[in-house]
Amino acid sequence: MLIKQLSVFIENKEGRLEGVTQVLMEHNINIASFSLADTAEYGMLRMIVSDPEKGKRVLREEGFSAKLTDVIAVKISQKPGTLHEVLKVLFEAGLSVEYMYTLATAGKDTSIIMKICDLGKALEVLKECGYMVCTAKEAYEINNNSN
Amino acid sequence: MIWNETKECMSRDEILNMQSARLKKTVSRVYHNVEFYRKKMQQLGLEPGDIKGIEDLHKLPYTTKEDLRDNYPFGLFAVPQSEVIRVHASSGTTGKATVVGYTRRDIEIWQECVTRVLAMAGIGANDKIQVAYGYGLFTGGLGLHYGAENLGATVIPMSTGNTQRLITMMEDFEATAIACTPSYLLHIAETLEEAGKTDKIKLKAAICGAEPWTENMRKEIESKLNLKAYDIYGLSEILGPGVAADCDAHCGLHVYEDHFVPEVINPETLEPCKEGEIGELVFTTITKEALPLFRYRTKDLTSITYEPCDCGRTIARISRFKGRSDDMLIIRGVNVFPSQVESALLEMGETSPHYILIVDRVNNLDVLEIQVEVEERFFSDEIRQLEGLTKKIAHVLQTALGLGVKVTLVEPKTIARSEGKAKRVIDKRKLI
């Protein structure tokens, strides 16, 4: 199951990050999880939001470079070594992780958002090894479900 | 010292007589050998005999850089190729270079002019001069090289690109003179300062040119390096470096009027400016064989005076340049047109056409930053991809411009749009 991640290009300038969150707030879009990667000149804000299509549209209307990227969210339990096990499975299948971050949850288990070179193959491999992935609905509304 | 007193200290009448005779010969030769000029003169109803002396110069047609490009590469040459012993070329707006050629006599005249410049700066056979202009198609390196050899000085042909080696040789060889761009010389001065070597060098004179600089910058160079700095001017279309230069009085640059006839015109109306009035500098060559040009519009803004100088020279002097009448940027001595950036970006096809050039001077070296808007079409959420794109753009631009470029990706719509002519350049360099 693929999830749409909302990615936004942000220049390293005062107020730009706040500009993004303001647009999302004004359109009543919830940010379920996010990661911010930064370089010397710009940052890349990657978010799982309640309505990615609407998020992309409203951000573009406000002049941001926003796009949707397919990612997966793998469910793992909060125990030592579980992240390692997932990565090992992927590594052994010859799949490389472009980036990853955690999907915020209020429950005792967690999910890892992953961008992998070959998402289709990753899903197959993970399924074979008994891993569960979040559905889009689960990911976009994850906090609502857990509450 | 005055290298060629008979030519540099003539009376105004002698200058005008010499110019008249040489202009008449040039016009006749050009009319018979260069189709472009013959047609232009015919359109104006001009025959060679109509140019009876220098007073008729204004009747001749103007020549522009576009004319040179339209006749690329050798269309304006007035001699058979067998007589051309060298060509040089400078970058152009559309990727097409401006090509210039020299006969053996042209090279001799060029080196004579550069020799006059060096002698005027007090350089002689006992000096060791580092030529740190680029060698190659650019006229700077070889131009200074031949002039310095002709003078009898010891030439150290450094070219550009290795400041550490330049400084090592400057110290080890006890170089007494250097020729390079003024911004590069300031950079050298600061590198010497950081290494604590300023006291160890023996430089007494610097010949600086190929980019605009100010009187204050000259003073800064002089005080940092404890030497005398001189301004040399030139353009490949007319000769290369050595068309004009300043003396110890630093009251304008002496133009070698026995070879080049200067005029200053209003770039809008094309009417001649009065002495002292700022306008566009125009040159007519009166001894050039391979590429003689009538009334070539340099786009450089200056004023002219015919008052004899305190140094004893009587030839015309042009003032320090006030700028250029077009949008060409001179960055580290390299001509850069915003349109070059545009065509390179568009050709690459992976970026938005919205860009801006930001020129700045960091540690006395010109730096060119190009900001390009990130567009949906080429936007990736992987930083690795974006960095790859940045590098690719930088590479494409570096190839197109012949100059290192820093590329910065910016958000869409952040580069100001303008109705009419877009503002493509922010020049932050302050000529202090």
Brief write-up:
Chain A has 147 residues and is α+β, with helices and mostly antiparallel strands. Chain A has six helices and six strands.
Walk me through what this model shows.
Chain A is an alpha+beta fold. Chain A has two domains: 68 residues, VC0802-like, CATH 3.30.2130.10; 72 residues, VC0802-like. Helix content of chain A is 35%, strand content 36%. Chain A contains six helices and six strands; from the N terminus they run E-H-E-E-H-E-H-E-E-H-H-H. In chain A, strands 2-3-1-4-6-5 form a six-stranded antiparallel beta sheet. In chain A, strand 5 and strand 6 form a beta hairpin. Chain A is globular. Chain B is an alpha/beta fold and 432 residues long. Chain B has two domains: 327 residues, Rossmann fold, CATH 3.40.50; 103 residues, GMP Synthetase, Chain A, domain 3, CATH 3.30.300. Chain B has eleven helices and 21 strands. A nine-stranded mixed beta sheet of chain B has the order 4-3-5-6-7-8-9-14-13, sandwiched between helices. In chain B, helix 5 crosses helix 6, helix 8 runs parallel beside helix 9 and helix 10 packs across helix 11. The two termini of chain B are 30 Å apart. The mean pLDDT of chain B is 90.
Topology summary:
The complex is a heterodimer of chains A (147) and B (432).
Chain A lengths: L2 E9 L4 H11 L4 E8 L3 E8 L2 H10 L3 E13 L4 H11 L4 E7 L5 E8 L2 H10 L7 H5 L1 H5 L1
Antiparallel strand pairs in A: 1-3, 1-4, 2-3, 4-6, 5-6
Chain B lengths: L4 H4 L3 H22 L1 H9 L21 H6 L13 E7 L7 E6 H17 L7 E4 L7 H13 L2 E3 L6 H10 L4 E4 L1 H13 L10 E5 L5 H11 L2 E8 L4 E7 L6 E3 L4 E6 L13 E7 L10 E7 L1 E2 L11 E2 L4 E2 L4 E3 L2 E3 L1 H11 L6 E8 L2 E9 L9 H19 L4 E5 L14 E3 L5
Parallel strand pairs in B: 3-4, 3-5, 5-6, 6-7, 18-21, 19-20
Antiparallel strand pairs in B: 1-2, 7-8, 8-9, 9-14, 10-11, 11-12, 12-15, 13-14, 16-17, 18-19
Helix pairs in contact in B: 2-3, 5-6, 8-9, 10-11
